[in-house]
Structure formats: C-alpha cells, structure tokens
Amino acid sequence: MLKSTPATQALLYAALFLVGVSIAIVFFLIARNAPTVAPRLCMRGLKRQKAMSEGGLFAAFEPLVRVVASWFSRIPMPDFKRNIDRELMYAGDYLGLTSDEFLALSSIGCVTMGVIGFVSASVFELPVMLGVLMTLLGFFMVRLNVNSEKTRRFKEINRGLPAAIDLAALCMGAGLDFPGALRQYTDKSAKNDSLNEELSRVLQDLQLGRTRRMALENLAERAPTDAVRDFVGSVVQAEEKGNPLAEVLRIQAQMLRMRRSITAEENAAKAALKLMIPLMFIFCAIIIVLMGPFIVNAMGKGI
Question: Could you tell me if 106 and 126 are in contact, meaning their C-beta atoms sit under 8 angstroms apart?
Fold first, then answer.
C-alpha cells in the first residue's frame, strides 16, 4: 500500500484533473455528431423495446449511449465490430445493442467506474490501484454480461431441445407438417424461453419464403451448439434423402438425451475431483483443532 504523502496526493489530484479534462474533450467531440438511430426492426428492435420498457440503468443512459456510439461509428474496425455483432447475436441480441453501442456502453462504464474508483481512493486514502481496477472492471462489465447471457441461452436451448424434438415427432406422426409441429411447441411453451424464441424465428423465416434448409442453417448460426447442429444436420439430411422426418426426429431426441446424460456424468466426475482440494483443507483444519491443545500443552511443558 502506497504511503499517503503530499506528493502522492498531488499526483492523484493531477491525474483526476487530466481524466476530467479528457472526458470533457471527448464528450465535446462526441456531442458534435448526431446520435445513432435506435434499432426498431427485427429481433434487435424488439429487444431494445423490451429493455426500454423494463426501465433500469440502461433505459436511463440509452440516449447517451447512442450519442457515444455515433463517434465509434466513424472508426473503421469492420472485423472487430463483426465479432462483436456475432457475440451479441449469440447472446440473443442483448439489450438490442449494435456493435457501436456495445463499445459506447463499455466506454461509459469504464469512465464511470474509473472516476468512482479514483475519487474513492482519494477520499478514503486507499491505494491508487483501486481506481485502475475499477476502470478495467467498468470496461469489461458489459462483455461479462454478454458472455453470461450467451452461456445461459445455450444451456437453455440444449436443455429444452430434446423435448421439443419429441413433441415435433409426435405431431408429425399425427399428420402435421414440420412448421405446424414447431408451432405447437412455440404456442405451448414459455414465451421468454430461449428455444421458443429461436424456433419462432425459424417459423418467421419459413413464412418469409426461405427454404427449410436456410431457416435451420440460420438457427445453427445463431445457436452453434453441438445439439443444435446435430438437429439441423439430421433434418437437412432427411429432407435431401427423403427419409421419414418423424422417425429421424425421434431418433435424434433419443441421441440428445443420451448425450445429455453422458455430459451430466462427466460433470459429476469432474465435480468430485474439484471437491478434493477443499476437503483437504477441511481435513487439515480438523487435525489442527484436535491436535492443537496437545501441541500447546507440550510446548508449555518444554517437551
């Protein structure tokens, strides 16, 4: 921990002053540009409307985010922004953000958390490193939320896909076509479910005139998990070779359940190994508690 001296305090105040001047210059340059237009179409527009209707911090800062995004839109980073758009797509178009708005939200979080960290370090005489850590946390906070949402969606899709395929196979065996079987699942499952959302987009693609293969390949692109890829591959292959789709779906559901059971067993085996380390610490603590009094008495008697 750095010792608080007049010199270190002067350096801290100088750093805060430079940060404030930099922020003022940046916001002056940004304010000269018109804010970007909020997404209003497709799934991204629906997610933006939902985020705005729920309120919260994002709804309060959304105008500022669009203003800052207008500055990032002038920076040519096509490959980097394409990767961001892909991650946002995996996360279900998180908050309806574009790649420029994602960078803007990360920058706002970086500046806000950095100011809070440096001011706290100055007021409470804490290490200056706290401000640096808070700045990094603010920058990566949005990315951590996006990764967490992506992981949650993929798990939810993998968990619900076998039941959805089973229902589709039963419906097709009863005489419905493939879109009708999918519609039975989307109508009867929870509307906020990730799998329901993705299968609804498949139905929308089919209604817009896209082929079944194109709609399913788009599904595999939005949710590139092994379960989804196997499902899409089996349906496309059955369509090409003329195999009965209901039977193919039934077999696919059984394979997905078997894979999920194997994955659960592997995770249970890994969990048992991971528990060995805390169990060793607990065992050592018990030994110390039991043997401690005897060791203290022995040391007191000079043994």
Answer: no
pLDDT level of residue 35 (50, 70, 90 thresholds): low
Return the structure tokens found at 60: 């309060």
Domain residue limits at 39: 6-126
What's the number of domains the chain is made of? Answer: 2
CA distance 85 to 44: 11
The mean per-residue pLDDT over the stretch 195-212 comes to 91
Q: Does 137 map to a domain?
A: no
118 shares its domain with 179: no
Res. 153: pLDDT tops 60: yes
Residue 132 inside a domain? The answer is no
Instruction: State how far the Cα of 161 lies from the Cα of 99, in Å rounded to an integer.
Output: 29
Q: Which of 63-67, 217-221, 291-295 has the lowest mean pLDDT?
A: 291-295
pTM metric for this prediction: 0.75
Handedness of CA 116, 117, 119, 120 (dihedral sign): positive
